[in-house]
Amino acid sequence: MSKIATAKQREVQRIVDALSIAIAQHRLKPGMRLVEAQIVEVLQANRNHVQAALQRMALQHIVTIEPNRGAMVAQPEAREAREVFIARRAIESAIVACITPENMAQYQSEFSAQQQAERVASEQEDRRDIVRELSQFHLLLANVSGNKVLSEILSNLMVRSSLIVALYQRNDIPSCQCAEHAAIITALKAGDSALAQSIMIAHLNELEQQLDLADAAPDQLNLRQALLTS
Ligand SMILES: [Zn+2]
């Protein structure tokens, strides 16, 4: 019995992950309709599992389910966007405060690989890669902190941030800057937690200032295409 439940949970998680990644990489845009039958076909999934995944994502404010219209990718309002950034400042400040120079030494190779990936993505100017790599840095810090509760909260905030960036980013400039990430790494390696926290908060303020929280114009894209392109 519990094995069956676990298999179902894994499958629902697989669908949640596929949709979340597509949202984080801006392949699935805010307001796009999530047609169950198409998800079933493209992800080779069971309809009940797709419904469970969409319901879970609705609870996470990543998907909106409307009676008679079905599910669509959420379109966070400007107020919610500001609240997500307030939450990110609190959570990411706490994450940075948990990280010691010993943690940094332990994850040395992951940080080197991350910085290399950010540089390559920026040089190649592939917006999707840039968005993915720059978000990855924030998730890596959460992982390094070793605090699973903070990590879980941040994972949700990062997907919601992707929706917010897709809706409100003023221009095509990538939302994070590698140099600011490097400064955070340097401060953490030196054990200067207060400095790392203040750079992180300034970095998140900078990201918020790149948003135009006055208007939103969701694009219409094809769901099938968005899920097939990876
Ligand atoms: Zn960043």
* Rg calculated over all Cα atoms: 18 Å
Bound compounds, please? zinc ion
Assess the beta-strand content as a share of residues: under 5%
Q: Strand order within the widest sheet?
A: 1-3-2
Element string (H = helix, E = strand):
HEHHEEHHHHHHHH
Task: Please tell me what the overall shape is.
Answer: globular
Largest sheet: 3 strands, antiparallel
* Structure summary, number of beta strands: 3
What's the helical proportion of residues? over 70%
The separation of the N and C termini measures 35 Å
Mean pLDDT comes to 88
**How many DSSP helices?**
11
Q: Unreliable segments (pLDDT under 50, ≥5 consecutive)?
A: none
Structural class: mainly alpha
Structure commentary:
This protein has 230 residues and is mainly alpha-helical. It has eleven helices and three strands; from the N terminus they run H-E-H-H-E-E-H-H-H-H-H-H-H-H. A hairpin with a 3-residue loop joins strand 2 and strand 3 (70-73). Bound molecules: zinc ion. Zinc ion is lined by residues 134, 137-138, 176, 181, 203. Keywords: DNA-binding, Transcription, Transcription regulation. This is GntR family transcriptional regulator. Residues 9-76 form the HTH gntR-type domain. Pfam families: FCD (PF07729), GntR (PF00392).
Provide key terms for this protein.
3-stranded antiparallel β-sheet, about 230 residues, DNA-binding transcription factor activity, binds zinc ion, transcription regulation, transcription, 11 helices, TF_FadR/GntR_C, mainly alpha, DNA binding
